Amino acid sequence: MKAQTILRLCVCALLFFSVVVADGTPKAKKVRCKDKNYPDCYKTQLLCPDSCLRTCVLDCASCQPVCNASLALTPPPPPPQKPLKAMKVRCKDKKFRPGCFNQQFFCPSTCPRSCEVDCASCQPVCKIAPPVATPPPPPPQTETSPAKAFCKNKLYPQCYRQEQNCPSACPNQCEVDCVTCSPVCDCNKPGAVCQDPRFVGGDGITFYFHGKKDQEFCLLSDSNLHINAHFIGKRNENMRRDFTWVQSLGIIFDNHQLYIGAMKTAIWDSAVDRVELSFNGEPIFVPETEGAEWKPKTAPEVSIRRSRDTNAIVIEVEGNFKIKANVVPITSRESFVHNYAITSDDCFAHLDIGFTFFSLSNDVNGVLGQTYAGNYTSRVKMGVTMPVLGGDKDFASSSLFSTDCAVARFNGLPDSSMNIASGINGRGVFFKK
Q1: Are 361 and 223 in contact (CB under 8 A)?
Q2: What are the pLDDT digits (tens) for 206-246?
Q3: SS3 letters for the chain?
Q4: How many whole angstroms separate alpha carbon 385 and alpha carbon 100?
Q5: Which of 246, 241, 261 is nearest to 215 (CA)?
Q6: Residue 172's CB: how many other CB atoms inside 10 A?
Q7: Would the pTM of this model clear 0.70, i.e. be above it?
Q8: What is the side-by-side order of every strand in the sheet holding 206-208?
Q9: Could you give the CA distance from residue 310 to residue 306 in angstroms, rounded to a whole number?
Q10: pLDDT for 241-290, tens place per residue?
Q11: Region of residue 164 (left: phi > 0; alpha: psi -120 to 50; beta: else)
Q12: How many whole angstroms separate alpha carbon 72 and alpha carbon 93?
């Protein structure tokens, strides 16, 4: 009897001990992902594993509970961001109607949500320059340091040979006005053809003529002078026109043909001459020294002279015309500001030109020539920031030395009824016989 009692007491004690042990075992902790950057795992609830029932955390990246809290609490890398959708922008300035006004563009990839339309150039531009991981390399010296110029007229001793910096509006080339002893931009004078071609007519009115890349256009046609220009350029996918520049000129007078052009250049160096010349099909070499001159034996009235050691030429035919031509590149700053997208394989070297004419007739025509005609009335809309002159079909030529444009006047003979037209001293001067 006593043995049965002892056995019952042992069983009860064992059952009591089992209950106590079971009640004392900790329960597994519930954990959640609290990082909204992981939407697939966010707020998911899981139990800690047996190895760490109360000391785990949820790793949102793998969406699994882990015991090593130091690893789990380390901030995971952010999820990849979706590319921003390019915003659409329009030109809202009615002054540019019907050209660029209300045209729609997409913001460039460098600023897909923060751009605006520059109505003058009719292209989207970033409001703020895109950030760069490392500072860009300094631009070449030719882009930061303006060109030098000085007065060459000994009649002004107080200014003669005094060196001046070209102004910011024309850092690559300028002239010094000996009277005021100050630098002036060649491209602001009547008869100038510069940049994306910006013309200043014989009447002093500025206008743009874009033409088309890789084609020829008649700049001037008169009875004994015909000048064609070859345009180079790039197409902007967000625009309806090409960016264009004058790469070369084909000049026809009497029975002669004269060529001046800018050679294709990858990396610009102002000390390297990129001028190409020919007369009646024969190449011309002019020593790379300021003041060096070349004259053909068959036409002594023609002179070709260097106004600087390199990349600056003055062509003059006595009694007919004078041309100042400078070879210049598209700089990285110009490319960024105007969104030209110039690459390292071609800096689009081109000509900045200043024309002076001495014996034009009243019937002269051409993109620039028409502005010297006796009965010319400007078709340019005044007050517009970027007045554009059309008429591509009227001025297109089949080749650089063709005289087959629709407005051609050339016959190789001087006209008995002429005006002496000059682009000097501002607005152009006309003396009609």
Answers
A1: yes
A2: 898 988 999 999 999 999 999 999 999 887 777 777 889 99
A3: CHHHHHHHHHHHHHHHHHHHHHHHCCCCCEEEECCCCCCCCECCEEECCHHHCCCCEEECCCCEEECCHHHHCCCCCCCCCCCCCCCEEECCCHHHCCCCCCCEEECCCCCCCCEEEECCCCEEEECCCCCCCCCCCCCCHHHHCCCEEEECCCCCCCCECCEEECCCCCCCCCEEECCCCEEECHHHCCCEEECCCEEECCCCCEEECCCCCCEEEEEEEECCEEEEEEEEEEECCCCCCEEEEEEEEEEEECCEEEEEEECCCCCCCCCCCCEEEEECCEECCCCCCCCCEECCCCCCCEEEEECCCCCEEEEEECCCEEEEEEEECCCHHHHHHHCCCCCCCCCCCEEEEEEEECCEECCCECCCHHHHCCCCCCCCCCCCCCCECCCHHHHEECCCCCCCCCCCCCCCCCCCCEEEEECCCCCCEEEEC
A4: 12
A5: 246
A6: 22
A7: no
A8: 206-208, 198-200, 192-194, 350-357, 321-328, 312-317, 302-306, 293-294
A9: 7
A10: 788 999 999 999 999 999 999 999 999 999 999 999 999 999 999 999 99
A11: beta
A12: 56
What is the token pair recorded at 4?
């049965």
- Written as six digits, the tokens of 289 are 């020294």
Here the tokens at position 326 are 């400078």
Residue 243, both tokens: 């960016």
